[in-house]
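Hey everyone, long-time lurker, first post.

I ran two proteins through the pipeline my lab uses and got sequence/structure pairs for each. Pasting them in order. The first:
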Amino acid sequence: MSDLTEEEQLEALKRWWKENGKWVITALVVGVGGYLGWTTYQDQQEAKAANGSALYSELLDTLQVQSGQTLSDDARAEAAELVSQLKAEHAGSAYGVNAALIQAGQAVENGELDTAESELRWVLDQQPSDETRHLAQVRLARVIAAQGQLDDALATLKEGNPSEVMKAEYAEVRGDILSQQGDTAGAREAYQSALESLDMQQQNRRRLLQMKLDNLQPATAKESEGAGAEENAS
């Protein structure tokens, strides 16, 4: 186009615009519209996250009580409403899932095992992170076992594939359930597995597991230990 006169260049530009102008405008409109749509979406997501954070903070504040005191009925009702709102408006977020976990814990404290089970199953239905899923499965197994459904509780544990961090927790709960079923050998194996999975620094947990193991010693072994102690005393 550099060999053309200024007038010819202007004419060529007019023809090009006549042929392609509408596509250029369309592309600009779509591009601007897409940008505005994306920024609007981002703003909505940020506003939603801020709302979820505010509701969750309000829930935690509602559940706070002074040492030695219990949660009032009004506070309990308010907390239940906040949990319902978080689950409805933020189901796929950590706010909704954690609120349901809190509600399950409150239900266990109040002896409302059906409610606790429902909340924990809701958490699992949200397909949360592996860490949260493992935590919910372990708690659900305990709740189901407390309802006397020991086989179902064991089946719940089998559905999980615990991370290294949760292996000890899974094994301990399995040991508790097997102990309730009278499977002493299975319970001992589970407790031993839990001990081996625990970090050496977790001394309190290790002592508790060792106590559970000691309580599962065969009667003959306990009698022998008792007899030996008597002989030493004499």
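...and the second, right after it:
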Amino acid sequence: MITIRKATSDDATVLVPLLVEAFAQGPVAEWLVPAPGERRWVYHDYFADVYQREVEAGKVDTTADRSAVAVWSFRVGRQVIPRGRERVLQQVTGPYAGRFLRLERALADRHPTDPHHYLAFLAVAPQERGKGIGSALLTAYHKQHVDPRGLSVYLEATSSGNQRLYRRHRYVDGPELVLPGGPALYPMWRGHHLPTDWPKAFRATPSAG
């Protein structure tokens, strides 16, 4: 049985490297930090900042053995980059702050305005993948925070493999998000009604709920 619990600050030494391992490779990582030798330390400092902020808000889930992590939040309305975010990014990502800021702005600009839960990151330790742990994190959150209230969930998948996982949990594909001069991300939505600000072609997709 896979036990899900809230992560704490004490879990950072395990869960931050886990996030780095999951996301410091692939087209998005290569676009954000083109220098392979610098990518992991930049990603470590970036995720350390993200983790500290979100864990204090109680938005990070993990497993009993800390083999996986999910970072959630609740969103509504137009998303705005917090004041001072550029300064923080300069501190944690150095010369790559401009690219990280462009990424965050692109995500904010394309974020649905309908109320929803947002899955920012989901990572599973490499040696534990394929054992249903990612699905367990999704299912636990859906059952506790989403389905009983008839709410929706939004995320941006980074690969076709990730898309397949989310489709099994009733997420549907949205309009592709192409980063400025970079690769694509794949927005997905889970809910009874698709986002009102998605193009009509996608809002005509059968309900995911």
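Reply from user beta_strand_b:
Welcome! Quick read of the second one: DSSP finds eight helices and eight strands in the chain. The longest helix spans residues 36-56.
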